[in-house]
Amino acid sequence: MKKLVAILTLILAFSINANAQDKYEPTSKEKGTKEAAMLTELLGLSDTQNADFARLFIQKHTILEDKSITAERKQELSRVIEAKIKATLDGNQIEKLEKNPDLFKKLIN
């Protein structure tokens, strides 16, 4: 009987530990920094530009974490992010970014 209780306790402990690991989700800061790094890698941006984009993308993810955000607000946020990206980059960089539609879509959505 003691062995059965010990085995059940171990199984329960391992299943709780496995579930706790599945629930990790990156923070807004991690997501924003990663997106800025991907953009910097693609376009060869300076450290200052990378930091500026990181702040922009962190702010984007912070806003998107709000569960009460409406679809209209999300659409407006995407439009603003796209405008800020295009205002910051030069023509060649914009062209290079638009040739990578998956990344561009990820950055603005």
From TrEMBL:
Highest rank taxon of the organism? Bacteria
Where does the signal sequence lie? 1-20
Keyword tags: Signal
Name of the protein: DUF4168 domain-containing protein
